[in-house]
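Q: C-alpha cells for this one, please.
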Amino acid sequence: MKAIEFENISKQYRLGLVSSGTLSHDLNRWWTMNILRKPDPLLKIGETNDRSTKGNSDYVWALKDISFSLDEGDVVGIIGKNGAGKSTLLKLLSRVTTPTTGMIKAHGRIASLLEVGTGFHQEMTGRENIYMNGAIMGMTKAEISKKLDEIIDFSGCERYIDTPVKRYSSGMTVRLGFAIAAHLEPEILVVDEVLAVGDAEFQKKAIGKMQDISKGRGRTVLFVSHNMGSIRRLCQKGIFLENGQIHFQGNVHDAIKEYLSDNIIQNSYEGIDGDEQILYLKSASVLPQNGSVFYNNLSIIVKFEVCVVKNIPSLVLGFNLYSSYQYPLARTDYNDIDGRTSLPPGTYQLTFSIPAYSLSNGEYQIRFDVAEKNIKCYTSDKSNLTFTVVQGMDNFGNAFSEDIPIKSSIFREKWLSNIERK
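A: Here is the predicted structure, written as C-alpha cells:
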C-alpha cells in the first residue's frame, strides 16, 4: 500500500512579500480563479529556485513538478544543497503550508520534527508539552500516559521534565521533541536535520529508534540530513533535490553518489602547467577505487602525466596532500622507491595509490610538485585537485568510524607507486 503520493507538486513564492504584493495582482488572481474558474494567472511567470543567481522575476518556484510515491515501511533520505527545497517538501507533507499546484496523498498519522522546538509552548513544562503534542497528533490522554515514562527516559531530560521548555537548551529541546514524535506511534515520521543539534549519544539512539520504527513496525520515515553517513545507515531510498526539482531518485547509494560527485570541485586537470621548453605537467586526476565517491574504506588513485623536455640532474616529481584548512599532511615523490634523481627526456605516466583507511572524513587538496630541486617549481594552483572523503560501510552495513586518524607515516613506506614512459 502507498503511504505517500506526490502528484505534480509545485510551490511558488513571491520574493520578499506576503501575498502577490499589489492590490491589482490580488484582485486579478481572485477574479480569475474564483469567478472565471481558470488557473492562477501568476503561475505563468516565475523562475526555478537557484539561490546563487539573481533572477529577472519576483516569483520563484521553491518546488517545481515534484512527483514520487513511497510504500509503507520505506525509509527515504532527502538530500541536496541548502535552499534546494528539502524543508519546503517536508512542510507541504506536514501540512504546515499548502502546495500551489498538485496533490499530496498521505495515509496515516504524520509526526513531524522540522526544526528545534517545533510545536512546543515555551511557557509550558516538558511534561505538559508531551500531552499537548500527543493531543495534536490525535492521541488520547490515556494513550499518552501509557508512553509517558518511555518518552521521558528516551529523551534523557527527566530532571527537567517539570521545568518550562523556555529554559531548555537547543539540544534538550530536540531530544524531547524527537522522543515525542518517535514514541507516539505515527504511521509517517518526518525528520528535518534536527539530529545535527544533538550530541553523539543522542544521534546514535535516534537513528536506532528510526530503524526500529521502520523495520520493526513498518512505519514510513522521511529523513533530511547533510550527514551522508547517517543517510546511508538509515535509508534504503534517496531523493536528490536541486533547484527545487528532483535531480535523482532511486537507491540511496546511487543518490549519494550523484549528490557527492556533483559537489567535487576539481578532481582532474588537462592542459599545460609549466614550461613547454623544459618541464611541464600535462594532465592529472584523483579517482576512487570504485565508482565516483571517495569512501574512507577504499583506496584512492592519483595519476599524473609529466613531460620532461630537457635533462634535469635533480628532478622533483611528486605531490603534497593538504587538509581543507590548508594544513600539510603528507608528501610523496617518484624517486621514493629507488632513489632516482633524474629521467631522460620523454613523457611519463605516474600512478600512486593511497591505501584504504588512511584518510578520515573531510575535504582534501593535492598540489603537484614538478620542479628542479632548489631552483624552480613549474606547477601552479590551476592544476590543484580537490576531493572529499566520506564515511564508508563494511560488509554488514555498519558505518566505519569518522575518526580514522591520518597515518602520515605510511605515505613514504607503503604507497604503491608506478612510473611508465610513454
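A few notes: DSSP finds nine helices and 21 strands in the chain. The radius of gyration is 27 Å.
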